[in-house]
Design brief:
This protein is mostly helical and 192 residues long. It contains six helices and no strands. The protein is globular and about 45 Å long. The termini are close together.
Protein backbone atom coordinates (compact mmCIF):
# COMPACT_ATOMS: atom_id res chain seq x y z
CA UNK A 1 0.00 0.00 0.00
CA UNK A 2 1.24 3.46 -0.85
CA UNK A 3 1.91 5.58 2.21
CA UNK A 4 -0.52 8.42 2.98
CA UNK A 5 2.43 10.82 3.14
CA UNK A 6 3.26 10.00 -0.49
CA UNK A 7 -0.29 10.84 -1.50
CA UNK A 8 -0.09 14.10 0.44
CA UNK A 9 3.18 15.01 -1.32
CA UNK A 10 1.61 14.27 -4.70
CA UNK A 11 -1.44 16.39 -3.88
CA UNK A 12 0.65 19.30 -2.62
CA UNK A 13 2.93 19.06 -5.65
CA UNK A 14 0.01 19.04 -8.08
CA UNK A 15 -1.66 22.04 -6.44
CA UNK A 16 1.66 23.93 -6.16
CA UNK A 17 2.47 23.31 -9.83
CA UNK A 18 -0.96 24.51 -10.91
CA UNK A 19 -0.54 27.60 -8.69
CA UNK A 20 2.88 28.37 -10.16
CA UNK A 21 1.51 27.92 -13.67
CA UNK A 22 -1.26 30.41 -12.97
CA UNK A 23 1.27 32.90 -11.57
CA UNK A 24 3.38 32.52 -14.73
CA UNK A 25 0.33 33.23 -16.89
CA UNK A 26 -0.87 36.19 -14.80
CA UNK A 27 2.54 37.89 -14.62
CA UNK A 28 4.26 37.15 -17.95
CA UNK A 29 6.57 40.13 -17.50
CA UNK A 30 8.31 38.44 -14.58
CA UNK A 31 12.02 37.98 -15.11
CA UNK A 32 13.42 34.71 -16.39
CA UNK A 33 15.65 34.72 -13.31
CA UNK A 34 12.67 34.57 -10.97
CA UNK A 35 10.98 31.95 -13.11
CA UNK A 36 14.17 29.90 -13.07
CA UNK A 37 14.31 29.92 -9.27
CA UNK A 38 10.60 29.18 -8.81
CA UNK A 39 10.62 26.41 -11.38
CA UNK A 40 13.71 25.00 -9.68
CA UNK A 41 12.03 24.96 -6.27
CA UNK A 42 8.83 23.35 -7.49
CA UNK A 43 10.68 20.93 -9.75
CA UNK A 44 12.77 19.86 -6.76
CA UNK A 45 9.60 19.34 -4.70
CA UNK A 46 7.98 17.44 -7.56
CA UNK A 47 11.08 15.24 -7.98
CA UNK A 48 11.17 14.36 -4.29
CA UNK A 49 7.45 13.58 -4.44
CA UNK A 50 7.98 11.33 -7.48
CA UNK A 51 10.81 9.47 -5.73
CA UNK A 52 8.54 8.92 -2.69
CA UNK A 53 5.88 7.59 -5.09
CA UNK A 54 8.43 5.20 -6.60
CA UNK A 55 9.56 4.06 -3.14
CA UNK A 56 5.96 3.44 -2.07
CA UNK A 57 4.91 1.64 -5.25
CA UNK A 58 8.06 -0.21 -6.28
CA UNK A 59 6.63 -3.58 -5.32
CA UNK A 60 3.60 -3.15 -7.56
CA UNK A 61 3.56 -4.30 -11.16
CA UNK A 62 4.42 -0.88 -12.61
CA UNK A 63 7.26 0.51 -14.68
CA UNK A 64 9.11 1.69 -11.59
CA UNK A 65 12.24 2.57 -13.53
CA UNK A 66 10.45 5.29 -15.50
CA UNK A 67 9.04 6.79 -12.31
CA UNK A 68 12.41 6.75 -10.56
CA UNK A 69 14.19 8.25 -13.60
CA UNK A 70 11.59 11.02 -13.80
CA UNK A 71 12.02 11.82 -10.09
CA UNK A 72 15.82 11.87 -10.30
CA UNK A 73 15.76 14.14 -13.37
CA UNK A 74 13.33 16.51 -11.64
CA UNK A 75 15.57 16.70 -8.55
CA UNK A 76 18.66 17.33 -10.68
CA UNK A 77 16.95 20.04 -12.75
CA UNK A 78 15.49 21.60 -9.61
CA UNK A 79 18.89 21.82 -7.91
CA UNK A 80 20.50 23.23 -11.05
CA UNK A 81 17.83 25.92 -11.40
CA UNK A 82 18.06 26.93 -7.74
CA UNK A 83 21.85 27.00 -7.48
CA UNK A 84 22.77 28.46 -10.86
CA UNK A 85 19.85 30.64 -11.85
CA UNK A 86 22.01 33.55 -13.12
CA UNK A 87 23.82 31.35 -15.61
CA UNK A 88 20.74 29.39 -16.57
CA UNK A 89 18.63 32.47 -17.21
CA UNK A 90 20.20 32.67 -20.66
CA UNK A 91 19.72 28.97 -21.46
CA UNK A 92 16.42 28.51 -19.65
CA UNK A 93 14.42 28.01 -22.85
CA UNK A 94 16.65 25.10 -23.94
CA UNK A 95 16.84 23.45 -20.50
CA UNK A 96 13.11 23.88 -19.97
CA UNK A 97 12.32 22.41 -23.38
CA UNK A 98 14.49 19.34 -22.74
CA UNK A 99 12.93 18.79 -19.33
CA UNK A 100 9.42 19.19 -20.73
CA UNK A 101 10.16 16.77 -23.57
CA UNK A 102 11.58 14.10 -21.24
CA UNK A 103 8.81 14.53 -18.67
CA UNK A 104 6.09 14.40 -21.33
CA UNK A 105 7.47 11.17 -22.81
CA UNK A 106 7.77 9.66 -19.32
CA UNK A 107 4.17 10.56 -18.50
CA UNK A 108 2.90 9.09 -21.78
CA UNK A 109 4.77 5.84 -21.04
CA UNK A 110 3.48 5.70 -17.46
CA UNK A 111 -0.10 6.06 -18.70
CA UNK A 112 0.16 2.43 -19.86
CA UNK A 113 0.56 1.39 -16.20
CA UNK A 114 -2.65 3.20 -15.33
CA UNK A 115 -4.45 1.52 -18.23
CA UNK A 116 -3.15 -1.88 -17.10
CA UNK A 117 -4.74 -1.48 -13.66
CA UNK A 118 -8.06 -0.24 -15.09
CA UNK A 119 -7.84 3.52 -14.40
CA UNK A 120 -10.42 4.85 -16.83
CA UNK A 121 -8.75 8.24 -17.34
CA UNK A 122 -5.39 6.75 -18.38
CA UNK A 123 -5.91 8.24 -21.82
CA UNK A 124 -6.02 11.77 -20.35
CA UNK A 125 -2.58 11.17 -18.83
CA UNK A 126 -1.35 9.88 -22.18
CA UNK A 127 -2.71 12.89 -24.10
CA UNK A 128 -1.33 15.37 -21.56
CA UNK A 129 2.05 13.63 -21.63
CA UNK A 130 2.14 13.76 -25.43
CA UNK A 131 1.07 17.42 -25.27
CA UNK A 132 3.89 18.25 -22.85
CA UNK A 133 6.38 16.42 -25.09
CA UNK A 134 5.15 18.29 -28.17
CA UNK A 135 5.49 21.62 -26.34
CA UNK A 136 9.02 20.64 -25.35
CA UNK A 137 9.87 19.69 -28.92
CA UNK A 138 8.46 22.96 -30.31
CA UNK A 139 10.48 24.94 -27.77
CA UNK A 140 13.64 23.05 -28.81
CA UNK A 141 13.06 23.89 -32.46
CA UNK A 142 13.11 27.64 -31.83
CA UNK A 143 14.84 28.20 -28.46
CA UNK A 144 15.95 31.75 -29.27
CA UNK A 145 12.40 32.75 -30.17
CA UNK A 146 11.24 31.71 -26.72
CA UNK A 147 11.90 34.97 -24.88
CA UNK A 148 10.89 36.16 -21.41
CA UNK A 149 7.16 36.64 -22.01
CA UNK A 150 6.86 33.63 -24.28
CA UNK A 151 8.72 31.34 -21.87
CA UNK A 152 6.50 32.59 -19.06
CA UNK A 153 3.34 31.71 -20.99
CA UNK A 154 4.65 28.34 -22.20
CA UNK A 155 5.99 27.56 -18.73
CA UNK A 156 2.65 28.50 -17.18
CA UNK A 157 0.66 26.25 -19.51
CA UNK A 158 3.16 23.41 -19.19
CA UNK A 159 3.38 23.61 -15.41
CA UNK A 160 -0.43 23.60 -15.14
CA UNK A 161 -0.41 20.48 -17.36
CA UNK A 162 2.14 18.77 -15.11
CA UNK A 163 0.22 19.73 -11.95
CA UNK A 164 -2.99 18.36 -13.46
CA UNK A 165 -1.15 15.15 -14.34
CA UNK A 166 0.07 14.80 -10.74
CA UNK A 167 -3.48 15.22 -9.41
CA UNK A 168 -4.88 12.72 -11.94
CA UNK A 169 -2.13 10.27 -11.04
CA UNK A 170 -3.06 10.68 -7.38
CA UNK A 171 -6.57 9.44 -8.14
CA UNK A 172 -5.15 6.60 -10.27
CA UNK A 173 -3.05 5.32 -7.36
CA UNK A 174 -6.19 3.73 -5.91
CA UNK A 175 -6.27 1.40 -8.92
CA UNK A 176 -2.66 0.32 -8.26
CA UNK A 177 -3.51 -0.36 -4.62
CA UNK A 178 -6.59 -2.39 -5.58
CA UNK A 179 -4.60 -4.35 -8.18
CA UNK A 180 -1.87 -5.10 -5.63
CA UNK A 181 -4.36 -5.97 -2.87
CA UNK A 182 -6.27 -8.29 -5.22
CA UNK A 183 -3.01 -9.98 -6.28
CA UNK A 184 -2.00 -10.55 -2.65
CA UNK A 185 -5.41 -12.05 -1.85
CA UNK A 186 -5.30 -14.34 -4.92
CA UNK A 187 -1.88 -15.77 -4.09
CA UNK A 188 -1.80 -15.36 -0.35
CA UNK A 189 1.76 -14.05 -0.69
CA UNK A 190 2.98 -10.50 -0.31
CA UNK A 191 6.16 -9.73 -2.25
CA UNK A 192 8.18 -7.27 -0.19
Amino acid sequence: MIKPSTKIYMGITGVALIGLGIVCLCYPGATVLSISWLIGLLTLISGVSTIFLWAGARSSRSQGGAILLSGILEVIFGLIFINHNLVLASVLPIVFAIWLLVEGISIAIRSADYKAVGFRFWWVLCILGIGAAVLGFLCLREPLMVGGTTISIIAGISIILLGTIDLLALFGIKKFEKARWGWINDTGIDEQ
